[in-house]
Amino acid sequence: MTGREVLSKVPAVTLGFWIIKILATTLGETGGDTVTMSWLGETTDHPVPYGYLIGTAIFGAFLVALVIAQIRARKFNPWLYWATIIASTTCGTTLADFADRSLGIGYPGGSLLLLACVLLSLFVWWRTLGTVDVNSVSSPREESFYWLTITFSQTLGTALGDWSADPLSEGGWSLGYSGGALVFGAGLAALAILYLSTKVSRVFLFWAAFILTRPLGATVGDWLDKPLGKGGLEMSRPLSSAALAVVILALIFLIPQRPGEHPTARASA
Questions:
Q1: Percent helix, percent strand, percent coil in the chain, to nearest 5
Q2: Does residue 7 sit in helix, strand or coil?
Q3: Distance (Å, whole) CA 47 – CA 14
Q4: Model confidence, pTM
Q5: What is the pLDDT of residues 225-250, one digit of tens each?
């Protein structure tokens, strides 16, 4: 295969990519909460024992199956890719809740631990393959690092979102759901300005933005379904999740989906 024929197995990073990514992370929050909080009753007076752990096991099984299918696929498939992203973000939601609430690690400890996991995954990926550029993801080795890093980043983002929104009495920053969304949205806007006006590493900016989209989605998702008394809109979690899924499906269909251009193809062009 020549350099010009090498294509990434992940989508090109475009505005459409970021729109779908933010919606997917929001769905991950409402979808994860639907299973653990609404159906398994973790936030009710009569919860199913180990609800967060059960939810993590359910979404984790889907994630593993989809990652295997993604790695075995011969080329980029947008439906498979975004299904895997959604599985990673729902699994990240329930896993972060399990660590923070069931294990009692707390938001600071959980966030620091997950940040260390993200950085370690990126470091090992870079030492092993020489780059963490997502456009280089075209073989099982790169994909394994890619999905491991993404799962850690999705879980970290959930913990950061909850930490920012929860009141000081519960160990949070007391920004509220809308306040947290504004802060993380402003962070993404700052990264966009850096992208457009500076020569800061595009690889660094991608991973920084990828991580920040998750707490943005977490706070928006919580704002949609949390009780009015806690600053939310108290919308139905299942209905919110279904509506988000329909919008995502429509955007995948309407927005052109193409694989990223592998660095070797750019070099030989």
A1: 75, 5, 20
A2: strand
A3: 42
A4: 0.93
A5: 998 988 899 999 999 999 999 999 99
